[in-house]
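**Archive record**
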Amino acid sequence: MKRISDNPNLFPFFLLLICFLIYGSSMPSLGFYWDDLPYIWFKVEKGVQGITEAIAFNRPALSFFFYVPMALLGEKPLAWQIFGIFTRWLFTLSMFGFLQSLWPQREKDNQNITFLLAVVPGFTQQWVSVVYSHWFLVLSVYFLSLRIFTKNIKSGHSHCTKTLLSMILAGISMFSMEYVFGLEFLRFLI
C-alpha cells in the first residue's frame, strides 16, 4: 500500500485488482440469483427492448443503464459477474474522485476510505450481478455529479455548464433510482 500511496496513478489499478481478488474467486461457479432472474427472463423472452420497456414503466431513466449491458452481455452469468465487479470498481473510483475534490490535501486518507469501501463486508450481495451492477453504475454517475459540483464550487468562479452538467447527472441518477435522493443533501453541506 505504501508504494501505491507514493504513486497515485497506481491506485485505480490496485482497486481493480483488490475487487477481483475479493469478489472474483467464486465468479466462475456463480449464476443468476434473486432479482437477476426476472431481468434475464425479460431479455430471453422479449429481447433488450422488452427489458427496457418493463423497467421504463416505473423507472424510465434506469432503462438506459440496462440497455447496453443487456445487449452486450446477454444471458452469460460469468460475463455479468465480471461486469458486476467492474461496476463496483467504477463506483469506488467515482467515490475516490469525489473525496479528492472535497479534500485534495488528504489523498492517503481518501485512498484508505475508498479501499475500505471496496472491501466492506457489510455488502454481501455482490453475486447478484445483474441488479447490483446497475445500482453501482447509478451511484458512479451520482458521485461523478458531486465531484463536478465540488470542483466547480472550489474553483472560486462557478461555471454554468459545469453546474448544469452536475445537475443533469444528479437528475439522471435520482430518476433512475430514488435511493440516491437522500444523498442530494450532501450538496448543501458542500
Q: What stands out?
A: The chain has a mean pLDDT of 80. DSSP finds nine helices and no strands in the chain. Residues 77-102 form the longest helix (26 residues). The two ends are 29 Å apart (CA to CA).
